[in-house]
Amino acid sequence: MSWGDNLKNKNGFLKKKNGFSLLELLIVVAIILIIATIAIPSLLRSRQASNESAAVANVRNLNTAQVSYSSTHGTYGTMTDLINFRMLDNRYANSNFNGYRFTIVLSGGNRNYTAYATGVSSNSSRFDYYSTPDFVIRFSTVASRAPSGLTGFPVQ
Description:
By secondary structure, the chain is of the alpha+beta class. The protein is built from 2 helices and 4 strands; from the N terminus they run H-H-E-E-E-E. The mean pLDDT is about 90.
């Protein structure tokens, strides 16, 4: 019996080996790539939306912390002051907290402040936010970091 005889069945035809052909594997890979092409941008937008809603909530926390701090000290505090007096936790001091960087700029002898939520990258956020002592959270005044036509407008 030769090696070729082992590949033939009793009718003389070649046996089909078990497994997938290269063409079948390429088709499966192509289908997976098409699905990934559709799904990944949607996943990215969902992550951006979640980071943005967290940023708005965190700016509200900054406003609340400023009210608490000013009722005790008579002036508004820096980010370090708010963290040291345990009005905020240490995550606000990090350069990347849910895709945003949070800063507080004091003015008028610490009688006025602006709290900023600035996106770290375009993949993690689309918009920037800010708030002043009127406690209204607004979109950025920079046109490229706010929805079209809504620079400086309140977040709904």
